[in-house]
Amino acid sequence: MGFLRDRYNEYGKGMQVTLATFAQTVKPKKYGGGAATVQYPHEKESPPVRARGVIALREDNCTACMLCARSCPDWCIYIEGHKELAPPRRAGGAPRKVNKLDRFDIDYALCMYCGICVEVCPFDALFWSPEYEYSEPRIADLLHDKTKLGEWMETVPEAPELEAGAEKKKK
Amino acid sequence: MIAVDLPYWAQSLLRVLGGTVAVLLPAGTIVYLFLFKMMSFMQSRLGPMEAGPYGSMQLFAEVGKWLQKEDIQPENADKRIFKIAPLIVLVSTFLLVAVVPFGPDAYFTDFEAGIFYALAVSSVSVLGILIAGWSSANKYSLLGGLRAAGQLIAYELPMVLAVIGVVIQAGTMNLNQIVEQQNAGSMFGWDGLGNPYILTQFVGFLVFMIAVQAELTQAPFDMPIAESELVSGYMTEYSGFRFLIFFIAEFATVGVFSLIASVLFLGGWGIPFSWFGWESNNDVDDWMNIVGPLIMITKMLGLSFLIMWVRFSYPRLREDQLQRFAWKVLIPVSLINIMFTAILKVAF
User: Fold this and answer.
1) pLDDT in tens, A14-27
2) Which of B18, B195, B263, B281 is deepest in the core (most CB within 10 A)?
């Protein structure tokens, strides 16, 4: 019998796997069957929370420090800003100088989704969003400005809970 | 027997129509059911779903796409030979189907040496493949063509030898009589199932199906068109309509070989004759000419399912493993099978 079992392990198992997958795919959905794929335009895929779909911008946090633009390997982030005087924090103080964003564009035709800009941002202004439906018929239309990047902030999921025993960030 | 006198031209027209249907229908069915759908299901996806209900019109979309494409020939190609090659492959399929019996009277020809003819004609496609590889003026095509020639010749032998077992047992090479022998036969005096040769010739059946798999260059024996090594082998330079002809020929041959295998081993178009008290092919009622083809198509689908199932499950063998398997395993096994069959035939 050892001979037969060896032959089965060699030749039978593979065919068993394909047949099992076949049966699983053919089985109706309500009995837990169905394909592993999604019929995309008709039903939407639900990407994992941490999927790298698109980079979103929280404009209020950005100081136009240019760290992201300089660290981008593709040079696909375009930032322009100017300094503005803001009212002082305490009464009688001197007005504060703040950086205001005039332009924050990401050219998604160039972006390679490395995420270095998200990593490098010291002010939590850039986030990964799992949003993926933003293809354009013209390549130039893939250059998105700060309003569009800001709209994607709504799709950014909540930050996941810290793992047990992880150190809380010091304020 | 049907006694209808048709003029010669009407008979010829019927034969041409029947032949076209018998080649194209299995090809289309196999491509849609197995290549599109079953392969997708085995990979946990749905396959084509957009063209028609469940993608059933996908085949017409594909054919339309291929017909629109430009008929490109390489500059250095041997143009006339290059153009003829796919036709030779397709013609061998049409010649093959000519001997397959679909019912007591539903056959194209009734050769005495039917299976001999079928095996001889099936190797004509090797010529087409070889000259396709040679005339393309492309090293990948040439390598693919040579591999195909080596493989098809190597696997022709075990196929012929496996068939010899059936021929010895049936005592005839006529395919219709092989069907009769199986359905009129009995197993140890019990004739409820006839005597399909898959039981007595199981080794022959295995060898035959493996050899068919290699003859059809389906995985795991698809070295001639190994896409990761040879682009597409002898089909590399073909596009548009000529590629379509190769494609149709490939899957039509799957169907025709399944038909032949079902005739040789599964009782062909027949149902056990004892069910209706028939003695031989001459007693069989006329309605079997309608039911027979349906039975044949069912058996064809079953056997093609087997071929395709193996195709989708196994990775490709290496060239030397392929040759070693043919010469060192299949041929000795089928020779031993012939020997035992002959001994048992004489003993009983």
Assistant:
1) 888 888 888 888 88
2) B263
Contact A126, A55 (CB under 8 A): yes
As given in the structure block, the two tokens for residue B273 are 């004759």
Chain B residues touching A18 at Cβ < 8 A: 42, 309, 312-313
Confidence check: pLDDT of B283 > 80: no
**Cβ-contact A107, A140 below 8 angstroms:** no
What ipTM describes this predicted complex? 0.74
**Measuring CA to CA, which residue among B186, B63, B217, B72 is closest to residue B136?**
B72
Tokens of A38: 């999604």
Instruction: State how far residue A45 is from chain B, nearest Cα, in angstroms.
Output: 14
What is the distance between the alpha carbons of residues B122 and B249, in angstroms, rounded to a whole number? 12
Query: Do residues B307 and B258 lie in contact, with contact meaning Cβ atoms separated by under 8 Å?
Result: yes
Long-range contacts of B185-194 (CB under 8 A, 24+ apart): B186/B274, B191/B272, B191/B273, B191/B274, B192/B272, B192/B274, B192/B275, B193/B272, B194/B267, B194/B270, B194/B271, B194/B272, B194/B273, B194/B274
Q: What is the residue extent of each domain of chain B?
A: 8-37+45-347
Residue B288 or B165, more confident: B165
CA dihedral A7, A10, A15, A18 (to 10 degrees): 150
The rounded distance, in Å, linking the Cα atoms of A127 and A68 is 12
* Cα–Cα dist B93/B80, whole Å: 21
pLDDT digits (tens, 9 = 90+) for A89-107: 888 888 888 888 888 999 9
Tokens 């020997």 sit on residue? B339
Residue with more model confidence, A52 or B279: A52
Q: Which two tokens stand for residue B347?
A: 């003993």
Give the closest-approach CA distance of A59 to chain B in angstroms: 42
Q: Which helix (H) or strand (E) holds A84?
A: strand A77-86
| Contact call for residues B145 and B234 (beta carbons, < 8 A) | yes
pLDDT-derived band at B3, boundaries 50, 70, 90: low
